[in-house]
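Need tokens for this chain, all 566 residues.
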Amino acid sequence: MIEKCLESTASSHVSSRPASNSYQLAVVGCGPRGLYCLDSLANELQQLDQIPRLYVTVIEPCQYPGAGCTYDIRQPHHLRMNFAARHIDAWVNREDRTLQQLSLVEWMRLHHPGFADPNAFVPRAIVGEYLHHCFRLVAERLSRFAEVSLIRDKVDEIKRTEDHWRVSLSSQTLQANEVLLTIGHEGWRTTAMQEEISSERLIEGVFPICKQLNLQQVAPQAKVALRGFGLTAIDAALSLTEGRGGKFHECGNELQYEPGGWEPEIIYPYSRTGRPMLAKPSSPTLIDTVDTAIWDKWRTEILNSDLPISPSRFDACLWQPVIRAASEALTDIKGSIHSVTEVTQWFENWRLLPPEMVTNVMRQSAEIALGNRQPDAAWAIGEAWRQLYPALVKTISHGGLTNNGWTQFKLLAVEMERIAFGPSEENVRKILALIDHGMIDLTFLAQPSLTEHNGIMKISNDSITVNLDKCINAVIASPNTPATTGPIGSLLSRGSIKCIDPTLGIDIDRAGRPISEIPGDTAGLAILGRATEGCVLGNDTLSRKLHEHDRLWASGVIKRLLMIQS
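Here are the structure tokens for all 566 residues:
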């Protein structure tokens, strides 16, 4: 295994101050983002006539580099992507790739042929296998141009010292000329709960499933509150049912649930808004019937906006193109006029969605995704957002919005996550089947009261109160709330890096370099991924088409390396 070879050299060149005739790069975190950066670095090195002396140390605590914790290959297969397989490709170019550099679908045809449908939402574990396979290929290729090592550990702090970086791990300290931080979720952290619930009653996080939601943590027939109604909450609900032996059976266009006998008695999800996630269409057939000129026109409209966009221009520059594209797409696909006013009214009604309508809109979205129902305004707005999203990313990242504009955009983006970037229709139908069976109860969906007194935990609304056994926190921490003890937190606390705004991400340039008032404090540092959300849009993606940061970062590394060693 390439990892064993890398680990065998993990302490050979990193324990002392970097030598004057070498250049040492530490890559902290190696999920998909770290993998893509290493691939870009190998691509740059491959173009050089004379290879400089470079040492690359990859620091990743998870067992499978490339996959990270999100795509851990050991997780159960009922945990699936909300991104169709055809969109996942770890390599940049189709033209000059090797025979080994396969897209996910091509790779699955060889290793998991039963999952190789391009339109399928495949298990995250299989995507993890693919990403880990890609890491091994990248590590092997990078090793031709540099000395590469792998350390399986967690970084607690990084600090600038004289002309190099000191990287403090749990087991050792190493030093490097450059550090790249691609630490993603920083583990499976959750947002803090306002309610004070004892540790015996509270399960702080869903992942890893085998640890957090096992039979000891959530006993059969327990009454469970589930904080959240998004993708993580869906994973939790399926893990407590399908993951415990329950079965789903096709019944017409719907699913029926057959209990396995080890489930909780009942699951009460609750969230801040009470609004659900809508099903994402799996097949491109419906999309292909829309005239592509509609999407092209409104992408161009967004890309031609005068920057930066302030709150006063936000609606005209960003939201109206989405609404107008949605109304034109709906008109085109249905052959009858659907006005901007109609689509706008649907969105306004959506934000006031009463709890009793939740299952209706979920069911309708699943039927449309399956092709069993004509598209509606919800589908049109979601598809417009998906189609125009690359233009939004390019326009508003790196100063395209004023700070107040970003704050306004965040509110819209959170809403559009539910409409455009939801789960597969299969997972929506599974949740509906659990609701129909009575396993999931939506009585307390919107902002209930959760209390604990004298060891008894209760959930209540204006009309009913129920005693609970457990509460599961299924709300993943925001990208803009870094771990206080991690490397990002330590840099922020010292003022070495800064956020655009207290509620927004780390300010970086297009090569991932932090923009600091004291440039010397960040020389040789780069930060890519979730921590920059608010400076960069759309970090939570496996796509290599949305951003160029990894390529620009790698190019910058090579330029500095050659300058120092010339």
